[in-house]
Amino acid sequence: MKNKLHAFFVLLLVVFISILIMILPTFFTKHVSRTVLKQEITLPLVLNGEKDITIVFFGYSGCVDICTPRLNSLATFYKSLDTSTKKRVGVEFLDISLPYDKALPSRFAKFFDEDFKGIYLNKNNFRVYTKAFNIYFAQSLSDETEYNHTSNIYLIKKSANKKEIRYVYGAYPYDFKQISIDIKGLLNE
Asked: Is it the case that residue 123 has pLDDT exceeding 80?
Protein backbone atom coordinates (compact mmCIF):
# COMPACT_ATOMS: atom_id res chain seq x y z
CA MET A 1 0.00 0.00 0.00
CA LYS A 2 2.83 2.37 0.87
CA ASN A 3 4.47 1.76 -2.56
CA LYS A 4 1.18 2.46 -4.36
CA LEU A 5 0.70 5.67 -2.42
CA HIS A 6 4.28 6.70 -3.16
CA ALA A 7 3.81 5.91 -6.88
CA PHE A 8 0.57 7.92 -6.92
CA PHE A 9 2.31 10.99 -5.41
CA VAL A 10 5.20 10.67 -7.87
CA LEU A 11 2.71 10.49 -10.74
CA LEU A 12 0.81 13.47 -9.35
CA LEU A 13 4.07 15.42 -9.04
CA VAL A 14 5.04 14.58 -12.63
CA VAL A 15 1.63 15.73 -13.91
CA PHE A 16 1.86 18.96 -11.88
CA ILE A 17 5.37 19.73 -13.17
CA SER A 18 4.27 18.95 -16.74
CA ILE A 19 1.37 21.38 -16.45
CA LEU A 20 3.67 24.05 -15.03
CA ILE A 21 6.11 23.56 -17.90
CA MET A 22 3.29 24.07 -20.41
CA ILE A 23 1.62 27.04 -18.70
CA LEU A 24 4.45 28.95 -17.00
CA PRO A 25 6.19 30.19 -20.18
CA THR A 26 3.06 32.12 -21.22
CA PHE A 27 3.47 34.36 -18.15
CA PHE A 28 6.98 35.33 -19.24
CA THR A 29 6.45 35.60 -23.00
CA LYS A 30 3.32 37.74 -23.09
CA HIS A 31 3.81 40.57 -25.62
CA VAL A 32 7.22 39.18 -26.65
CA SER A 33 5.82 38.40 -30.09
CA ARG A 34 5.17 42.10 -30.77
CA THR A 35 7.95 43.98 -32.51
CA VAL A 36 7.88 47.77 -32.66
CA LEU A 37 9.31 49.29 -35.84
CA LYS A 38 9.40 52.52 -37.76
CA GLN A 39 10.46 51.06 -41.08
CA GLU A 40 9.46 53.12 -44.08
CA ILE A 41 8.30 51.21 -47.15
CA THR A 42 7.80 52.43 -50.69
CA LEU A 43 5.91 49.45 -52.03
CA PRO A 44 3.13 50.20 -54.51
CA LEU A 45 0.32 47.82 -53.55
CA VAL A 46 0.02 48.33 -49.80
CA LEU A 47 -2.01 51.27 -48.53
CA ASN A 48 -3.01 52.69 -51.88
CA GLY A 49 -6.56 53.20 -50.67
CA GLU A 50 -8.12 55.69 -48.30
CA LYS A 51 -7.27 53.83 -45.08
CA ASP A 52 -4.78 55.35 -42.64
CA ILE A 53 -3.78 51.97 -41.20
CA THR A 54 -3.58 48.58 -42.84
CA ILE A 55 -3.22 45.18 -41.25
CA VAL A 56 -1.25 43.04 -43.70
CA PHE A 57 -1.11 39.24 -43.73
CA PHE A 58 0.87 37.10 -46.19
CA GLY A 59 -0.40 33.67 -47.12
CA TYR A 60 -1.92 31.80 -49.99
CA SER A 61 -5.43 31.19 -51.20
CA GLY A 62 -6.80 27.91 -49.94
CA CYS A 63 -4.27 27.54 -47.12
CA VAL A 64 -6.02 25.53 -44.45
CA ASP A 65 -3.43 25.06 -41.70
CA ILE A 66 -2.03 28.58 -41.31
CA CYS A 67 -4.15 31.14 -43.17
CA THR A 68 -7.67 29.97 -42.43
CA PRO A 69 -7.49 30.05 -38.61
CA ARG A 70 -5.53 33.29 -38.58
CA LEU A 71 -7.80 35.06 -41.06
CA ASN A 72 -10.83 33.78 -39.14
CA SER A 73 -9.50 35.30 -35.93
CA LEU A 74 -8.56 38.49 -37.78
CA ALA A 75 -12.10 38.70 -39.20
CA THR A 76 -13.59 38.27 -35.71
CA PHE A 77 -11.33 41.05 -34.44
CA TYR A 78 -12.15 43.30 -37.39
CA LYS A 79 -15.89 42.82 -36.86
CA SER A 80 -15.43 43.95 -33.25
CA LEU A 81 -14.02 47.34 -34.31
CA ASP A 82 -16.39 50.29 -34.22
CA THR A 83 -17.54 51.82 -37.50
CA SER A 84 -15.37 54.94 -37.21
CA THR A 85 -12.25 52.79 -36.71
CA LYS A 86 -13.16 50.53 -39.64
CA LYS A 87 -13.33 53.61 -41.87
CA ARG A 88 -9.64 54.22 -41.10
CA VAL A 89 -8.33 50.63 -40.78
CA GLY A 90 -8.19 48.03 -43.54
CA VAL A 91 -7.00 44.45 -43.88
CA GLU A 92 -4.97 43.23 -46.85
CA PHE A 93 -4.14 39.63 -47.69
CA LEU A 94 -1.13 39.26 -50.01
CA ASP A 95 -0.99 35.92 -51.82
CA ILE A 96 2.50 34.38 -52.01
CA SER A 97 1.52 31.44 -54.22
CA LEU A 98 1.41 33.26 -57.57
CA PRO A 99 -1.94 31.69 -58.48
CA TYR A 100 -2.96 31.38 -62.13
CA ASP A 101 -6.31 32.97 -61.32
CA LYS A 102 -5.48 36.58 -60.42
CA ALA A 103 -8.92 37.04 -58.78
CA LEU A 104 -8.37 34.14 -56.35
CA PRO A 105 -6.65 36.21 -53.60
CA SER A 106 -9.53 38.66 -53.57
CA ARG A 107 -12.17 35.92 -53.37
CA PHE A 108 -10.23 34.14 -50.63
CA ALA A 109 -9.84 37.30 -48.51
CA LYS A 110 -13.48 38.30 -48.94
CA PHE A 111 -14.58 34.84 -47.79
CA PHE A 112 -13.48 35.92 -44.29
CA ASP A 113 -14.80 39.49 -44.46
CA GLU A 114 -16.23 41.50 -47.35
CA ASP A 115 -14.04 44.46 -46.37
CA PHE A 116 -10.80 42.46 -46.63
CA LYS A 117 -8.71 43.13 -49.70
CA GLY A 118 -6.91 40.24 -51.43
CA ILE A 119 -3.88 41.18 -53.48
CA TYR A 120 -2.33 39.20 -56.29
CA LEU A 121 1.45 39.54 -56.42
CA ASN A 122 3.11 39.06 -59.79
CA LYS A 123 6.64 37.58 -59.86
CA ASN A 124 8.37 40.98 -59.59
CA ASN A 125 6.17 42.22 -56.74
CA PHE A 126 6.46 38.83 -55.07
CA ARG A 127 10.25 39.12 -54.80
CA VAL A 128 10.14 42.72 -53.61
CA TYR A 129 7.45 42.13 -50.97
CA THR A 130 8.83 38.91 -49.53
CA LYS A 131 12.23 40.59 -49.17
CA ALA A 132 10.88 43.84 -47.67
CA PHE A 133 8.74 42.00 -45.10
CA ASN A 134 11.22 39.14 -44.50
CA ILE A 135 8.63 36.54 -45.45
CA TYR A 136 9.67 32.94 -45.08
CA PHE A 137 7.98 30.42 -47.35
CA ALA A 138 8.82 26.95 -48.57
CA GLN A 139 6.93 24.31 -50.45
CA SER A 140 5.77 21.54 -48.15
CA LEU A 141 7.78 18.34 -48.38
CA SER A 142 4.68 16.20 -47.92
CA ASP A 143 2.33 18.04 -50.33
CA GLU A 144 3.61 20.19 -53.19
CA THR A 145 0.35 22.15 -53.31
CA GLU A 146 0.95 23.40 -49.75
CA TYR A 147 3.43 25.99 -48.45
CA ASN A 148 4.93 26.58 -45.04
CA HIS A 149 5.14 30.31 -44.49
CA THR A 150 5.48 33.19 -42.08
CA SER A 151 2.22 33.92 -40.30
CA ASN A 152 3.02 37.39 -38.97
CA ILE A 153 0.61 40.25 -39.22
CA TYR A 154 1.95 43.72 -39.91
CA LEU A 155 0.43 47.00 -38.82
CA ILE A 156 1.25 49.70 -41.38
CA LYS A 157 0.55 53.40 -40.99
CA LYS A 158 0.16 55.87 -43.82
CA SER A 159 0.85 59.51 -43.13
CA ALA A 160 1.47 62.40 -45.49
CA ASN A 161 3.81 61.00 -48.15
CA LYS A 162 5.07 57.85 -46.45
CA LYS A 163 4.09 54.39 -45.29
CA GLU A 164 5.71 52.73 -42.28
CA ILE A 165 5.63 49.24 -40.83
CA ARG A 166 4.99 50.13 -37.20
CA TYR A 167 4.27 46.78 -35.53
CA VAL A 168 4.79 43.11 -36.32
CA TYR A 169 2.87 40.44 -34.40
CA GLY A 170 4.34 36.96 -34.64
CA ALA A 171 2.79 34.54 -32.19
CA TYR A 172 -0.58 32.97 -32.73
CA PRO A 173 -3.07 33.41 -31.22
CA TYR A 174 -2.47 37.09 -31.78
CA ASP A 175 -2.86 39.47 -28.87
CA PHE A 176 -5.81 41.41 -30.30
CA LYS A 177 -6.15 43.46 -27.12
CA GLN A 178 -2.63 44.82 -27.73
CA ILE A 179 -3.31 45.25 -31.46
CA SER A 180 -6.41 47.29 -30.62
CA ILE A 181 -4.36 49.49 -28.27
CA ASP A 182 -1.70 49.94 -30.96
CA ILE A 183 -4.30 50.86 -33.59
CA LYS A 184 -5.86 53.47 -31.30
CA GLY A 185 -2.44 54.90 -30.56
CA LEU A 186 -1.58 55.17 -34.26
CA LEU A 187 -4.93 56.74 -35.07
CA ASN A 188 -4.33 59.38 -32.41
CA GLU A 189 -0.83 60.34 -33.59
From this structure: yes
